[in-house]
Amino acid sequence: MAHTIGVIAGDGIGKEVIPAGIAAIEKATRGSGVSVSFSDLPWSCEYYLKHGRMMDEDGYERMGTFDALYMGALGAPGVSDAASAGLILGIRQKFDQYVNLRPMRLLAGLSSPLANRGAADIDMICVRENSEGEYSGAGGRVHQGLPIEVATDLSMMTRAGVERIQRFGCKLAQSRPRKLLTLVTKSNAQRHAMVMWDEIAAQIAREFPDVTWDKELVDAATARMVNRPESLDTIVATNLHADILSDLAAALAGSLGIAPTANINPERLYPSMFEPIHGSAFDIMGKGWANPVGTFWSVVMLLEHLGETGAAERVMKAVEHVTANPLLHTRDLGGTATTAQVTEAVCAQIAATSQSHLTIA
Ligand code: NAD
Ligand code: IPM
Ligand code: MN
Question: Is 0.85 surpassed by the pTM of this model?
Answer without folding.
Answer: yes
